Amino acid sequence: MRLSEGVEWGLHCAVLLAVMPPDTALPTSRLAEFHGVPVAYLAKHLQAMSRAGIRVAGTGPRGGYRLARVPADVSVLEVVEAVDGEDPAFQCLEIRRRGPTAVTAREYRTMCGIHRVMVDADAVWRERLARTSVADLAQGVARDASPKAMEKFGTWLQEVTS
Amino acid sequence: MRLSEGVEWGLHCAVLLAVMPPDTALPTSRLAEFHGVPVAYLAKHLQAMSRAGIRVAGTGPRGGYRLARVPADVSVLEVVEAVDGEDPAFQCLEIRRRGPTAVTAREYRTMCGIHRVMVDADAVWRERLARTSVADLAQGVARDASPKAMEKFGTWLQEVTS
């Protein structure tokens, strides 16, 4: 079971957009540069985030994108599902209905117990990701970053916005 | 993100082994027949379960395998990890260390906040799966199965053990 690497990219991009000065939009090329990832591949994931209503085109002559909502209203789960899809990790193929004990469909009155525990685990996973917002992540990044990194961020921000 | 279909197969096989009469071992061919899945592909997953200490070779002239422990001591998580591996779904590639704000390695004093929330979510997912045993699953299957399915199971069991 593996999440797409685009999940990491998408979350980092969401955090960066969250900490930009108000009304500052960033083009995909800047987001790719900041994270050291290939533009074309990142663009695919960012488009998925736009389709999911997480990111919108900014206004003004520079173009670029910004978060569609305040960061506190964008959950980690939304970004994960936008980039990686909403399908549960476990796909029940109902193999209990095969083989020598197979009975007619209407005799399977309840969800297979194996499916049920996997659905429960999927729900707690998503619930945990839904509880954290991009604003929470951004606060954490700002708190954890070294003074040197913050200084470099300031320099980059000036270059991008000037 | 997708779990291998072998997870469903492995869990169903564990449940079937759990409800077999004491000292009854089942060969891979019987497990495949019961679940309507290809023997060779199932064998790969069952071997992973044997390596993980979930399943052991039975004794007696018929050969086959049985659970290595009482079903209450085998968790769903153990089967999932045996078949699908123990790697977390999210792989942090530390992209925060790239680009214009990169600083020296020792200045990253804490785990990336994005990584941390994914690690937390992974932990609650595994915790949920660890809380359910193969015995729990087996009880649920027995409770939910229709009388007709139980009757067919009885007939199959007689054929297998006679």
Would you spell out the secondary-structure blueprint of this structure?
2 copies of one chain form a homodimer.
Chain A: H1 5-18, H2 28-35, H3 39-51, E1 55-57, E2 65-67, H4 76-84, H5 113-130, H6 134-144, H7 147-161
Antiparallel strand pairs in A: 1-2
Helix pairs in contact in A: 1-3, 1-4, 1-6, 2-3, 4-5
Structural features, described:
2 copies of one chain form a homodimer. With 162 residues, the first copy, chain A, is mostly helical. In chain A, 54% of the residues lie in helices and 4% in strands. Chain A is built from 7 helices and 2 strands, in the order αααββαααα. Chain A has helices at 5-18, 28-35, 39-51, 76-84, 113-130, 134-144, 147-161, and strands at 55-57, 65-67. A two-stranded antiparallel ribbon of chain A has the order 1-2. In chain A, a hairpin with a 7-residue loop joins strand 1 (55-57) and strand 2. In chain A, helix 1 (5-18) packs across helix 4 and helix 2 crosses helix 3. The radius of gyration of chain A is 21 Å and the shape is elongated. The termini of chain A are far apart. Chains A and B meet through helix 1, helix 2, helix 5, helix 6 and helix 7 of A and helix 1, helix 2, helix 5, helix 6 and helix 7 of B.
